Structure formats: C-alpha cells, structure tokens
User: Fold this.
Amino acid sequence: MTGRAHFEDEKRLLNEDILQMGVRVEEDLRKALEAFRTQNKTLAQEVKADDPIVNDFQLKIEDRCARLLATQQPVAQDLRCLVSAIKIADELERIGDHTVHLAKAAIKLEGEPYIKPLASIEKMAETGCVMIRMAVDSFLTLDVEKARATAAMDDEIDRLHKVLVGELLEYLRETPGKAQQGTKIIQTSGFLERLGDHVTNICETVVYAVDGRHEELND
Assistant:
C-alpha cells in the first residue's frame, strides 16, 4: 500500500470513529432527556455507564491522529483535518459530560413532581441532538455551509435557556419553598446551554479544517 493510500485508509477509519462517537453522544443525550422527562432512574444510570465509552472514543481518536501526524507528516488540509479531529473529539467528550449532568438531574429529582412543565428543557435537548448530528456530518463531508447553519441553531437554545431561567426565578419569588428544585433545573438548563456552545465550537473547527480560517460562529 502506498503512503497516500495508507493515509486515506486511516483517515476513513478516523472518520468512522468520529461518526460512532457522535452517534453515541447523541443517543445518550436522547436517553438522558427521556430519563429526565419520565424521572427514570434506571435509564439515567445507563447514560452514566456510557460515559467511559465516550471517553474511550476520545482517546482512540487522539491516538490515531497522533500516529498519522508522526508517520505521515501531512500538510495543508490533511494536517488541518487531523488537528480538527482531535478538537472535535474533545468537544464531543465535553458534550457527553453535559449529557451525564442531565441524567444526574433525573436521578436527583426522581419521584419529585416538577414545579412546572419543562418544555424548554426538552426543546433544548432535542435541538442539541439535531445539532450534534449535523455538526459531525458537516465535518465528515467538509460542508462549511452546513456547519454555519448548525451553529446558528444555538440561538434557539440560548433563547430557551433565558426564557426558562426568567420563568423559574419569577416562580421562585412567589414560591420560595421550591428553591432547591428550581435551582437544580436552572443548573441543568445551563448545562444544555453550554452543550450548544460546544457544538458551535465543532462547527468553527469545520470551517478551520476546510478554509484554514479561525472564524467565530454565532458569537
């Protein structure tokens, strides 16, 4: 196998790893959302148990990139793609951490009726799932326009977070006895808001991989 053919084969395997990691993180977020929605402790525990798998994906991707950087000495877009893959794996791992936070909230609030309908939390998580899938696909296809469109979706997550925090603070002023649950929900919403930021970071990395430019999206 020629050097270029070997590189292309390894890059294909790298992309498969990133795809699998993205799918795992998205599936865990959907599972965590369902656990939160239904206060299902068993489902939430499954999400927590998946966290080491996500971490292993990150290490596997970093190791594969390090080997290619050391043995193939890529240049131009090939080099940028490897550097970007390492960054994307790191962002996906952090998204996985926020997914675990959502699962932990489901465990913490198990059996305690929610103080109000949490449609905003559900919409934030659902939007996050779509963003993860689109962001990973934009890297695998090197589609800058899809990356930009994905990052723009973070505005909706930010808006939902702001609305939810405002509603809960108003509720807690009138019903201070529910401060513990209200604070936990606000904290959980904050984790989802940051999840959107990490997906935006992935999208910015896609722009760098393709164009070699550091561009802030949705600032």
User: Anything to note?
Assistant: The chain has a mean pLDDT of 94. Residues 94 and 198 are 7 Å apart (CA to CA). The chain has one domain: 3-211. The longest helix spans residues 3-38.
